[in-house]
Design a protein that fits this description.
This protein is mainly α and 280 residues long. Helices cover 57% and strands 1% of the residues. It has a two-stranded parallel ribbon. The structure holds zinc ion (ZN) (2 copies). One zinc ion binds next to loops. It holds the Pfam family FA_hydroxylase. It is found in: Membrane.
Length: 280
Amino acid sequence: MSELLSKVGYGGFFGIVWGALLLRYVLFAGLTFWIVWILLGKKLSHKLIQGKKPDKKKILHEIRYSLLTFFVFALSGIFVAWSQVNGYNLVYDRVSDYGVPYLLLSVVMLILLHDTYFYWTHRMMHHKSLFKHFHLVHHRSTNPSPWAAFSFHPLEAIVEAGIIPLASVIFPLHQTAMFVFFLYMTSLNVLGHLSYELFPSWFLKSPFTNWHNTTTHHNLHHRFFNCNYSLYFNFWDKVMGTNHEKYKQTFEEISSRSSSYEEIGEVTAAEITSKDAAAV
Ligand SMILES: [Zn+2]
Ligand SMILES: [Zn+2]
């Protein structure tokens, strides 16, 4: 990172990071949207979790705020690179400094740290004093599309961007580890907002997979607000008793559907008020 920064300067670095974030968004959210929503939409209509797609206005809202989020994320990238140049964090450039086994371990540590960071910051942003200012923008999508993956108010975007600056002062991080983490995070984030349940019906019954979240899990969070706060793993929701009481039942019902499903009335954004936000 420091090498790139010295070559292109802060302005160039910001532009490259913002462009890369945009490309990542278009590739992951756009491709998923095109394949699942456009190409296979009719075939998979029985797998629509809420029985229908969100309206187009909501999708435009999700894209607008995601583009804004990338400005915040790019600034966070500059902050991490600046910290590295000045020796304020543990970001390193040569893989040989810590070796390949550590590189792989650091990806796992980053994912585990982010899972905990996300759960607790997410619950914090659901506190009634913070919800409207930080998190309401994301919850405008009560039936989200893949484009909602980065649809955050700039204040929430600052919180979400905090994971790399935090991790980089706790343990050594190479840019390859960050890159792999970003691929995993973006894939799971897009999958969580897919609106179609594509996980197999045995997923929550098997001890090999039931520790991982599904699309239904995050979709229920967008619909009911005060449950299912976790991102990748079901660990913190289980420990804190915050899983939706009918999560497993709902997942099994949707994932085993084989025919069209009746429409469910969408909760409108107008119904969203800070009183809906669950207190920590
Ligand atoms: Zn969401
Ligand atoms: Zn939330």
